[in-house]
Structure formats: C-alpha cells, structure tokens
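pipeline/complex-builder :: batch 7 item 3
reading input block
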Amino acid sequence: MNAVGSDTLFDADFLRRLDSLSLLARTLRRGAQRAERRSVQRGASVEFAEYRPFVAGDDYKYIDWNAFARWRQLVLKLFVEEEDLHVHLLLDGSASMTWGTPRKFDYARRVVAGIAYLGLANLDRVSLTLLGSPAGAEMLPATRGRHRFLHVLRWLGSREVQSGPRPLEDSVRGWTATRPRRGLVIWVGDFWGTDAEDAFRALDRLRYGRHDVALIQVRDPGEAEAGTPGEFELEDVESGTVRRVVISPQMARAYRERFDQYQDSLQAATRRHQMPMLAVDTRLDVGDLLQRALLTGGFVR
Amino acid sequence: MTFLFPGAAALLALAIPIIGFYLIRTRLERRTVSTLLFWDPLAVSAYQTALWRRLRRWLSLLLQLLLLALLVLALSQPLPPWQTPEPASTVFVLDGSASMLAREGKGKPSRWESGRELVRSRIAQLRPFDRMAILESGNPPRILSGWTSSRRTLDEALKTAVATGDGSGIASAVDLARQIASTQKGTRIEIVSDRVWPDAFKAGNEVSVTTVGRPAPNVGITAFSGRRSPAQPGEIALSGEVASTGAATSPLSVELHRDGRLIDVQSVVFEAGKPWRHEWTVRSDDAAKFELRLTELFDDALDVDNAAALEIGPLTTIPVLLVSDPEPFLEAALESLPRVAWRRVGASEVPADPEPGSLTIFRKTAAPDAYAAAPILLLNPSDPGFWGTPLGAVDRPLVSEFDKNSPLLRHTAMASIRLDSATKWKPAAGATVSAESFGDPLFFGRWEAGSDPRRWLLLAFDLDSSDLVLRTTFPILLGNVVDSLRPSVSPAVNRAPGVVETLLVAASADATDAAAQPAAAAPVWAFLPLWWWAVMVAAALFAVEWSLFNRRITE
C-alpha cells in the first residue's frame, strides 16, 4: 500500500478550493433557521441580538412580555446562539479502501480533510477517527480552530489502510466504546462489509448512539462492473479469500444487478433513518463533492 | 489421397505453441477485487464444477487443434481419389442447341446458363498445370478458346459463348473436339448438354457427358413453311405445325401475322399423340413477312419455339417481246397480265439476241436461230423451223382433244374455240401436243425445262381466223405461259428449333450413357476442390468456437 504524503495529497489548489467552500458554508449557515436544528447543545453562550415582530407560528416562550407591556406590541427577543458542535469524522481504513485508481482511501482522506477544514473554520469541535484497525480506532482528539487544520492534515497524511478483514460493525462498536460526545458523525468509506448486512448493522450502532449521521460513499468506477469476461481467480483484497469465477455476459449482468440491489438497499436504509448520504465515485472532483455536500444539507450546521 | 503441396503439413508444428499456450493458460489469471460481497450470491453459477472446468478447456483445445488441422489440410491442397496429380487436359463442348434455352420455371436459369455456370466452375478448379479448351456447338462449331491454362482467358472466352439454337452441329463439334484432343495425350472430352441431340448422333465412349436440365413441359412450333403456288404465283400457301409434349394441354391459340398485322387466329386442339397442323392460303404479289405466334401458353419451358417467321419474296416481272404487226387483241391481253412488261416490234426490228428470262411471241413470222434457246411462242408461223414442218391447211378444224392436265391449258376452255382454218403441222421430234383436231396438232411444243435448252410453243392457227381472242381462254392461256416462265419460288421455311418432342424428352432417358460417366452425372458442388471444403468447415468451426468463447463455454 502506497503511503501518500500530505503535501501531494493536499496540494495548494485543494486548499484554495476549501477556502472558497468555507465562504459558501458560512452563507448557508446564516440563512438557516434555528427551529430546523436538532443538534444537542452543551455549554452554549446566549446573548441578545435584536427584536422582531411576532408572527403566527412563533414560539410563545420567546415573546418579551416586558416589551409588550411597554409597547403594547408582541415582539420576539432574538439571541445570537453559539453552538459548540462536535463533528466526528470517521474515515474507513479497511483494506478494501486501498482498491481503485486513484485509491479510494486517498480520495476519502481528501474528502475528510475538506470537511474537517469547514468544521474548523466554523469553530466546531472536530475529531477524526480511522476505522478498521484491529487494535482499535485510531483517533485525533477533538480540536477546534482553523489553525489546527495543519495538524489535521498531518494526521491524515500519516494514516494508512489497515490490513486484514474486520467487520464494519466491530469498527463502529470500537469507536462508540470511546463514548464520544453526541454530535454530527460523517462517515466516509465504501461500506463494503464482510457480509451483506454488516454495513447496516454498523449504521444502526451509530443511530443508537443518538448521533446525527451523514454518509459519503466512495466507490471506484470499476467496482460497479464485473470486468472483462473470462475465467479468473478473484481475490478479496481485504480477506484474501480466492474464488474461481467464469465471467460470462450473463454473469456480468447478474453481478451488476446484485451491485445495484445492494446500493438501493443502502440508499433506502439511510433515507428511512434520515441519514443524508452521498454516493460518489473517485472520478468526481473532491471540491465538487464538498460543494454538493454543502448544498445537499445535513452535512453543515 | 494425394496432396499437391505436402510441405504444408509442416505447419502442423503450430500445434506445439497452441498446446503450450493452453498449458500456460491453465493457470488462471488472478484478479484482485475490493470485495467478494457481490460475487458470493452468484456462487451457484459462477463456481462451476471442477469437472466442467476441465472439460471446457479440453473442448477449447480440441476445437483449436481441429481448426489448425483443417487449415493445414486446405493449404496442402488434397486431391480426391478420382482426381490425378498429373496435368489434366479437357476439351469442353458446350451444346448451344435450342433446347438448351429451356427453363424449368420462371426466374430459374436456362439449361444454357446452367451449362455455362458448370463450365465456369470447372475453370475455377483448374490447377496451374491443367489445360482446357472450350468449343461451342453450332453449325459450324466455334472454338471459344484453344488450349490454355489461364483461367482468365477461359473465363473471357466463356463470356462470348452464345446459344445458336442450331442443334445439328453437335456431331461436327465433337469431331472438332477430337481433333483438338489429339494434340494432347490423355485429353478428356466433356460435353455439357441436355442430351437433346439428333437421332443420328452418338457420343463415343471416350466422350463424357455432363447433363444439365430436367424434362420439362413444352408447346412449340415445330414447322412453319410457305411458298408461292407454282400454278398461281400470286397465291402463297403457308403451313404450320404445333406440337406439345404434355398428354393434356391447356387450350392455346395460334396467331398468323402478316407484316405485323394479325390476319388469322386458330384455336389449337391436340389429338392424342399428334401434332396440330394447319394451312393458310394468302394472296399477295408483293413481298410479305409472315409470323406464327403461340398465345395463352401455360407450362411452357422453351420460349424460343413459341414464334416463327418467314419471308416470301415478290413476284418477278417477265419481259415479253411481241414481234408482230399491230394486234389490238393480243396487246390488250398482254396488258391485262400482272407483272408483265411487254413491247412490240416489227419483224425487221427483232433484237439479235433475246433478253434473258423473257418471252418472245412471234406472230406470223419465224423465229431467228438466235432465239432457239430462248422461250418463244409462235403464232401460226408460215415457215418451217426447229419447231416442225407445215404440211398444208386444215379447213374448219375443231378442237377435238386437249390436255386438261397441262398447266399451260389450266382453266381454259379450248373445246369451245371456233376455228375457220388452221395449218397442218408435223411437229419436231420431242414436241408435245396439247391440243389437236382429229390428229392434226393445233397447240404443241417443247416447254418442259430439261437438257434441251429450247423451249417453244406453237399455235397452229391465226388469231384472225378464230374467236380465241374474244374468249377469256385467250388471256388465261397467255397468263399460263407467262407464269410458267417465272422463276420457281423455293419454299420459305422458318428455322424452327426442331422437333418439339425431342426437347421434352427427359435427358436422363439416355441413362446408360450417364451411368457410364459417373463424374458427369454428379452435381456441381461435387466438383468443388477439397481444400475449399476444408476452408468452409474451418470457417464454420471458427464461428462455433467464437460463439462458444463469447458465451464463455470455452476459454
């Protein structure tokens, strides 16, 4: 497995693109409504901002009755709310992420770096976790502030995929065992489990931890197809398991159907549990992916 | 089996690398995938049994080796047992008779086209050291190409072959082929024909016959002829004959056209086993073209015998020189005759030599000796000559007897002529008396064309001393004399294709000859070279292999 240095992984163009994306994120955040948020807030400081006329549908508890007594007009007292949001970025480090050109793992690291930058720029507490290690999750503790971004890059640049098979559920269980603060969990990986239900069980574990979960699935374009016809020995890069397969046109069609079926199941599960999910392949520019994530909703607070 | 290029067998060594590649390919290519998650559900069909995996690879190797073997076989140019490796020389005789134009159905090639195609296929099989010559039967036969080994030359020559429709030349064509064959040792003569030949023709044992065509129903004109009537040249007699091969034929019509205009239609009803015949009489002094056509034909294989045409020439004009004083009756009678150009001269103005083909009438005067060999009519001459000697006068003679069968006296009423007087003659030896009065000749002469060139007639009484000029017998008699001088019109005969029955005879009727020549009776595909078959099988095998490979049944 090739280790890619942080300099080549996160070049200057990529960082400039992140700057522009942070402006977009701020604009989007300013337009968001309070009542739409659902995140758990702890230690948030509140200060008066301004009044605004009461309109039907506003919460009665925010009506300033003193102002009503003085002005005989219902007004709401608005506050500037500072959220101390925890953003947990989970990077899939299983061996299957080393597959593809470019490697899915490198692509996923750039995605995680971008989201981390947006979080740090927003003064959120951002923690990073590499899933898939048999010894347990490798973590970068929660950090805050844009100045910590270089630290984040170095941490990401020094990570590498983990060898050996490990169920996604176990990896997630290992992370939740560290009792992370509730917050927004953004999981970047391919979601190829050791069996057909592995990824779904892992998502359930995240859900049971009462985290807000968003998923970014990184795929290589070659994974959706069975490949050139013929007889081959297929070796699972993660488990090393070998299967002898005759790839015929009929077999290729069956493979494609199976692949689409799995994707549909994953999309249906995330939709059912209100987990935003983006499925992309590595041909998509990371900047474009981040912009799409911002506009999709669920990835920005 | 003999191989023309046995060195090609060395290419069988290519089997070694094929087997080598096969053994190398036995080790499967390993492909790394990110997950087997999607392959495991397909395990039942994907992970086939080891036995089948081995079989499919053996099958693949077997097909490839078989393909190689076929290609090597094709390159080695094998010869079947019935072909010899020695150079072959063949003279082809292409039958161009009318029956070869028959088709066995609409849109199907004619026998002639099939025969040409057969020769073309033989040209395609020609090896570089083989030689071939092509003849076309006709009358006379035509050499399309002499000895050559060039396929291109033979093909070009074959393109110039045309069916002449004349089947009488097959014997001379075979004779010519024998002459050509005598220049090359071991030459084979092959006739490509439907075996519809003249009865007298028999192909020899050294000649092989390749039969084309099968028996087919036919209705056709077997004879169409016409001629002017010798008695009445103005009348044209036409005769037509139509025959059919079928026992029961559909009704059909025969149309007679004259100069493109329909003049008669006859319904044809065949009696069992007999042809239909009909005769027409048409009057025409001018030239005329007659055409006989069959219409409303069904189940007819041969088109060429459905129409026949012939031309009848015009009547010739006979020059007549009258040597006489003016004689209005005689001149009027000559004037009334068609196609007669007459003129009168005095006895002193007689030309020295007679005009060829003319009739000279001498009245009351003798003919000069120069006219002895020319047709002359003497009307009551006074002097003796080569026609006879006068013996005296006969008073009030009667026409007691006359030859009714003589063409000169046809349609005349000589017995009713009244005569005042006549001259008694002693006719020259060999003269024939056509009319007499109780032994005294009144009309005699020597008129039959034969070894004696002299043709003369003598009327023993003067026109003034009888009422002959007042009767219709007179112009009729003159007309008969003039018409008898017209050149005999040879009958016009259409070159009909031949006897229709023979066209319908099954070519296989001569089965004994066909049996003696098994190669000749074989279909065209049997003459395709073995290498061609090897390539075809190899191509089919390759298609099968390709199909199996695409379906991953073989590897």
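note: The first helix of chain A runs from residue 6 to 9.
queue -> next item
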